[in-house]
Specification:
The protein is α/β, with parallel strands linked by helices and 410 residues long. The protein has helices spanning 2-16, 21-45, 56-64, 81-91, 143-154, 184-196, 209-218, 240-247, 250-269, 284-288, 293-304, 310-317, 348-353, 381-398; strands spanning 50-53, 99-105, 111-117, 129-133, 158-163, 202-207, 228-234, 330-335, 357-362. It has a nine-stranded mixed beta sheet, with helices on both faces. The longest helix has 25 residues, at 21-45.
């Protein structure tokens, strides 16, 4: 905090030459108030992440994790969840990665894109696979997705992104997009990986809506999930009605809902020809007039996936109801102040009752934020947590003994 005070004092000296004494006093008071508020927020938010759970996964994390033993020092001037969320979008860099795109055709005539991180050097067909599943309109072009890809690559895993239909500048072939509870496309993606690399274990790292889809998939009876050995769910909404309630608050509507709705409308408008002059279970003009996500889901998503209305769709989409059926290691990462996944609706009870699940809860971090350092342009705290989780899963579940770990693995 000394640097902040010095900067404030320097600024005061420069400005004071052009101000009256009374104005200087007011400015000094304002600066001291702001600096004091930043200091208070920094001290209040700088806590060790809380680890919740009861089973073996929690024990492994307690014994082996370094991220959990360190205090998480958030970016000092991120006063609250919105700055974490928004500044991550604006300031985090986009790593330059060489990706190869593969389109997977679906039985209904549609397609989705898998973007593979190109690896140099000899290829091991049995090495673990990390599949990143982005948020509601995210894809392989987003900064947070690429940093998560690097977390897999650092652990010498085969790494790819599962892009939902129409996302990451992919082309829609049918009017159908995606929903938070439908797992058909993810099932096909995982089946494709397992057929190609039958002995390679799969770790899914999923964010926000991607976490909802992943939770539904890994708790299903789908035989395609056999090779999925672990998953990490970041900033995911666990109670759809809780997220609905939170995102419709004025500040959240202005910052997030309008933006996300605009991105969804953009995907549809770019494929306008698919939605006009056809007999569809929804009205194109009406859905494009939607001003909230629940209106969009009521007029489009619910109809596309066979639900009566948005309420029925949201009830089906509750991820927390699926947690008792998780039978692989699942790490949940959330911030207490996530504006889209409110703390009041986090699945604390379900986490405690299933020994396969552990939750890391930070005091602050917003939605997919978790910024740290003065200039948060690189990896965030959550990237360190994910990278360590992937490494621990490989070491504890995929490799039989420490002798199997190459000398240069870490």
């Amino acid at each position: 905090m000394t640097n902040i005070a010095q900067l404030g004092a320097t600024a005061m000296l420069g400005i004071s030459a052009y101000m009256f004494p009374s104005q200087i006093v007011r400015l000094r008071s304002l600066i001291m108030f702001v600096l004091g508020h930043i200091l208070y927020n920094f001290v209040k938010s700088s806590k060790n992440p809380e680890l919740l759970g009861q089973g073996k996964l929690k024990q492994v994390l307690e014994e082996c994790s370094t991220v959990l033993t360190e205090t998480y020092y958030p970016t000092p001037y991120c006063l609250g969840p919105h700055l974490h969320t928004v500044l991550r979008v604006l300031f985090q860099n986009v790593p330059k990665l060489r990706l190869e795109r593969e389109y997977i055709r679906t039985p209904d005539g549609g397609q989705f894109a898998l973007d593979w991180l190109v690896n140099k050097g000899p290829d091991d067909l049995d090495k673990p696979i990390v599949m990143v599943v982005p948020g509601i309109t995210g894809g392989s072009h987003n900064n947070y997705v690429r940093h998560l890809m690097l977390n897999g690559h650092t652990n010498k895993c085969r790494t790819l992104v599962f892009n939902n239909r129409g996302c990451a500048f992919s082309t829609l072939l049918t009017p159908r997009m995606y929903s938070g509870s439908n797992t058909e496309d993810m099932s096909l993606a995982v089946r494709t990986l397992s057929d190609r690399y039958p002995n390679a274990p799969i770790i899914i790292v999923a964010v926000s809506l991607g976490g909802m889809i992943t939770t539904h998939f890994v708790t299903s009876n789908d035989p395609a999930k056999t090779n999925v050995k672990a998953c990490c769910i970041i900033s995911s909404p666990w109670n759809s009605f809780g997220t609905y309630e939170s995102i419709n608050k004025p500040i959240n509507h202005m910052l997030y809902q309008r933006y996300l709705l605009g991105k969804l409308k953009g995907i549809v408008s770019n494929h306008k020809h698919l939605y006009q002059n056809r007999r569809l279970p929804f009205n194109y003009r009406q859905m494009m007039k939607s001003e909230t996500l629940w209106e969009w889901d009521d007029r489009f998503t619910s109809k596309m996936f066979g639900f009566k209305d948005w309420k029925e769709y949201y009830t089906d989409g509750h991820s927390f109801k699926k947690l008792p059926y998780v039978d692989i290691p699942m790490l949940i990462i959330n911030a207490e102040d996530d504006p889209l996944s409110p703390a009041d609706y986090l699945p604390f009870v379900e986490v405690q009752e299933n020994p396969n699940i552990a939750m890391i809860l930070t005091k602050t971090g917003g939605h997919i934020g978790f910024l740290e350092g003065w200039f948060p342009s690189g990896p965030t705290w959550v990237n360190r947590a994910v990278e360590e989780f992937v490494r621990l899963m490989i070491f504890t579940d995929f490799l039989k003994s420490s002798e199997d770990v190459p000398n240069d693995y870490y």
